[in-house]
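so my prof wants the structure for this chain in the tokens format not the other one, which i didnt know existed until like an hour ago. anyway here's the sequence
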Amino acid sequence: MLQVTMMAPAVSDSSNCPADVLIVEDDPIIAIDFEDRLLGFGVKSVRTVGSVAQALAAIAARVPGFALLDVGLSRENSFAVAERLAALKIPFVFVTGYGADARIPPEFAGQPRLQKPCSSDALEAALQVRAAD
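here's what i got, hopefully its the right format
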């Protein structure tokens, strides 16, 4: 007798996703891509800003559950945002197109990084690691 097992489609467990993610990214195309993928993973709210001042204001208005920080913004870097998030104990990941050449301050050397462009699997893994913390 032939037995067929039907399997449900693979669905991300959105219970492990943060409710609110802050994206600090100065390239609108990359920001939209991140936002679409995060929403697809089950994140309820995604806010995008393009500068350190906007990021700090967004954090002051509502502390996110997680953040993606582009290292190199137009004429600045995101390390002041990283300092604020670290002080609030908010998990975050650096995102950079510079790979190993990105100059990260020593206090953030152990911080997770995603290489641009990053796969959806890598992005989702960053969210899952955050959920385990």
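also thought this was worth mentioning. The radius of gyration is 16 Å.
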